[in-house]
Amino acid sequence: MTAVLEIAGLRKTYRSRRRGTRNALDGFDMRVEAGQVHGFLGPNGSGKTTTLRTLLGLIRSDGGRMAILGHEVPAALPTVARQVGAIVESPQFFPHFTARDTLSLLASAGEVPRQRVDEVLELVGLRDRAGERVKTYSLGMKQRLAVASALLKNPKLLILDEPANGLDPGGIREMRTLTRTLAESGMTVLLSSHILGEIQLICDSVTIISLGRRVAFGPVGQVLAQHASSAVRVRLEAVTDLPAAADALTRAGLQVTPYPDHLMLADVDKPAVVSRLLAEHGLYVSELAPVAVDLESVFLELTATAPVPGQHRQVDESARVGGAARPETTGGGWGA
Ligand SMILES: Nc1ncnc2c1ncn2[C@@H]1O[C@H](COP(=O)(O)OP(=O)(O)OP(=O)(O)O)[C@@H](O)[C@H]1O
């Protein structure tokens, strides 16, 4: 398959006299194949926006390589810019302009044929409200207008940062259908979102980032399968025993994620070992069930961002996967 987007070893450090240095990207890799809808997932502050801004030449990297449609960027951005549509930060529109005026202005500035304005208004579902001023639009309608503006050039690569932000359930479903339709027409879509159920429904493949590094990537089914084999949900007869159970299982070397009314265990080859171990501590299991894994649980496990009762996770406290200095080896190098 042909890569529309390749990133290898990308590094970005923010430096400020007051806050010191912060490694936002620490050798990040990504590869997006042509015609795919690719999900870009990561906890708050993990480096998604920094990646996208670097890719689009809005900020400069401190190292690594990036290519769009085979052209190295940022050097080739003037060449490839026409083929990339992006909404990375909430775009600002003139509030007194209508959606049609806004898009017409952008179309003439970008030498896009006038008829494309009506096409994109139709595509994003704004046709009937296109004559109203943007200041009267709801958040979701502004979001649709933003997507319309990114589609004007009929790009080969469409980058959407949180496109479902502010959309109602119907709007989210329409955005899903639109994204799939665009991909079926040959467009490659890179989609960052925190709505993991949505990503699982829409995306062909994903990249998960944590602390500026890739911690998982590949086709959605493959990423799920890699984590599906041996997750187990444990409930106890007494909920108050959960902390003691988590403690005993952790000390036995198991990877435990606590929830208010159950524990999740990763990599359990023999579930019977769990009930025996807990019984030895006077803790009695009421349920021990293999779990059908979903993207949300994989995300929480890989980024270590599952909520822990009684604790308030701070934004930078996501995973150092495996405790290793570098979380995963991916074959390395360009395009892995
Ligand atoms: N201009 C900046 N100056 C200093 N630090 C920054 C700047 N922009 C981002 N950072 C830091 O870089 C890290 C990555 O931020 P980034 O915005 O890329 O995360 P994100 O994954 O997009 O998060 P979110 O999901 O919350 O949007 C964070 O620790 C953030 O505080």
UniProtKB/TrEMBL annotation:
Gene3D superfamilies: P-loop containing nucleotide triphosphate hydrolases (3.40.50.300)
Sequence segments annotated as region (Disordered): 311-336
One Pfam family named in its UniProt record: ABC_tran
GO molecular function list: ATP binding; ATP hydrolysis activity
Keywords: ATP-binding, Nucleotide-binding, Transport
SMART domains: AAA (SM00382)
Domain ABC transporter: 5-236
The keyword rRNA-binding is annotated on this UniProt entry: no
PANTHER family (UniProt xref): ABC TRANSPORTER, ATP-BINDING PROTEIN (PTHR43335:SF4)
Family to which the UniProt record says this protein belongs: Belongs to the ABC transporter superfamily.
Name of the featured protein: ABC transporter
Organism per entry: Micromonospora rosaria
